[in-house]
């Protein structure tokens, strides 16, 4: 069987609109403060920086939470003035983490998260149907980790990443009047993360972290074809009864660098800031290589190559928290997220926008228990689409909002 190389940007949703397909929803408390990372109050810090576990005041900490994310994308052809809108289902990212200090200087933990994924669904007969009709991605990160605290102000932590993923992608094959579905439910990959966490002053926390790229490998994928006439299948080297072609895949997920800090202006009021750098350059093109189906655009007709030309991107975040009482906390934030590609490389599989996001939330502490709620409203900037490679021109707009509920338990 020939090999198929499919970049994950092909296989992802648009939950976060700006930074490609990275879903920045790994902590409800963090989202309320613009998804900033230098907060070592409970186990939610584990995903952002494993070294932060060493500064959690509780010996044992458990957190879990989830989000509802709604998004819509609208594309208008400026020549025909025809407008098309997605009908995306509600996204539901989840996270959970646990940390424990077996001895004073050593902390261990485990983080579960869904940092890439969601679904985009265009009408079956829209003008971009040959690129995408529906695209669904589910990714799951499992991260065991350890942290060592060298002294009162410095800790180092590292994590191993095991990733699992599922993809389900539909698009039209108009020359035969049919469709293709690309599906794999057992993709997997490996990576790592590490970080330093500093507290040089009781008022100041500094977090420096790196999360590696993960190459997801799909070894049991199936491409299923649907044509109006059974006579078409033999022309493509397919069995008309099975209608399938196998494939393997390597799906790259990008690396991320983060620098964050939190400063306590007063005992009740703190401010946080983050800078994220995302290594999107590794997604330069999309290559599909089917086992037998000759539906490509290369000398070998089973191979289809599409340039993507992603570039590295940045995110700037600023958040704040104020303690109204020992039990009630108010939070606000805002961030700006760059799209990893220009207007002339816009793709409807992963429509991405330069985006401003405002966030807010409330936290409640009841002895060892904590309850956090948060929300975010995204304001993606419209794009003048001019992708000559795809022959795709027009204007794209989007809207999105997020709601989250998180729970924490620090028993001792």
From TrEMBL:
**Membrane topology according to the record:** Multi-pass membrane protein
- What are the entry keywords? Cell outer membrane, Membrane, Signal, Transmembrane, Transmembrane beta strand
Annotated Pfam families? Toluene_X
Q: Where can this protein be found?
A: Cell outer membrane
Q: Does the keyword Membrane apply?
A: yes
The record's section on InterPro entries has: OMPP1/FadL/TodX (IPR005017)
Q: Which family does it belong to?
A: Belongs to the OmpP1/FadL family.
Q: What is this protein called?
A: Outer membrane protein transport protein
Organism field: Chryseobacterium tagetis
């Amino acid at each position: 069987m020939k090999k198929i190389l499919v970049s994950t940007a092909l296989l992802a949703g648009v939950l976060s609109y700006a930074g490609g397909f990275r879903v920045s929803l790994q902590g409800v408390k963090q989202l309320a403060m613009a998804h900033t990372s230098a907060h070592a109050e409970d186990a939610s810090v584990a995903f952002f920086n494993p070294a932060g576990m060493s500064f959690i005041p509780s010996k044992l900490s458990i957190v879990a939470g989830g989000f509802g994310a709604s998004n819509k994308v609208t594309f208008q052809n400026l020549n025909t003035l025809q407008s098309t809108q997605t009908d995306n289902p509600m996204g539901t990212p989840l996270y959970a983490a646990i940390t424990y200090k077996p001895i004073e200087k050593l902390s261990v933990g485990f983080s579960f998260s869904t940092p890439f994924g969601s679904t985009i669904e265009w009408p079956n007969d829209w003008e971009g149907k040959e690129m995408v009709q529906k695209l669904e991605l589910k990714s799951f990160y499992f991260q065991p980790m350890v942290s060592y605290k060298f002294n009162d102000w410095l800790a180092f932590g590292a994590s191993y990443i095991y990733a699992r993923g599922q993809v389900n992608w539909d698009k039209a094959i108009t020359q035969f009047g049919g469709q293709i579905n690309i599906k794999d439910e057992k993709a997997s990959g490996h990576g790592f993360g590490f970080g330093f966490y500093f507290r040089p002053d009781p008022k100041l926390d500094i977090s420096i972290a790196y999360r590696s790229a993960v190459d997801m490998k799909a070894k049991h994928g199936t491409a299923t074809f649907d044509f109006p006439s059974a006579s078409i299948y033999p022309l493509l080297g397919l069995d008309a009864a099975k209608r399938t072609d196998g494939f393997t895949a390597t799906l790259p997920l990008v690396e991320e660098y983060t620098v964050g800090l939190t400063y306590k202006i007063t005992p009740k009021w703190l401010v946080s800031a983050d800078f994220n750098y995302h290594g999107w350059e590794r997604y330069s093109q999309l290559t599909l290589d089917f086992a037998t189906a000759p539906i490509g655009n290369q000398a070998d007709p089973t191979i289809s190559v599409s340039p993507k030309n992603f570039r590295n991107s940045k995110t700037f975040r600023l958040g704040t928290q104020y303690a109204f009482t020992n039990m009630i906390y108010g939070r606000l934030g805002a961030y700006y997220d760059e799209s990893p590609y220009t207007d002339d490389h816009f793709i409807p599989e992963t429509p991405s926008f330069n985006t401003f996001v405002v966030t807010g939330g409330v936290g409640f502490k009841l002895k060892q228990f904590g309850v956090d709620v948060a929300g975010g409203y995204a304001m993606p900037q419209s794009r003048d689409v001019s992708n000559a490679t795809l022959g795709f021109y027009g204007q794209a707009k989007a809207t999105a909002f997020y709601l989250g509920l998180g729970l924490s338990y620090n028993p001792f």
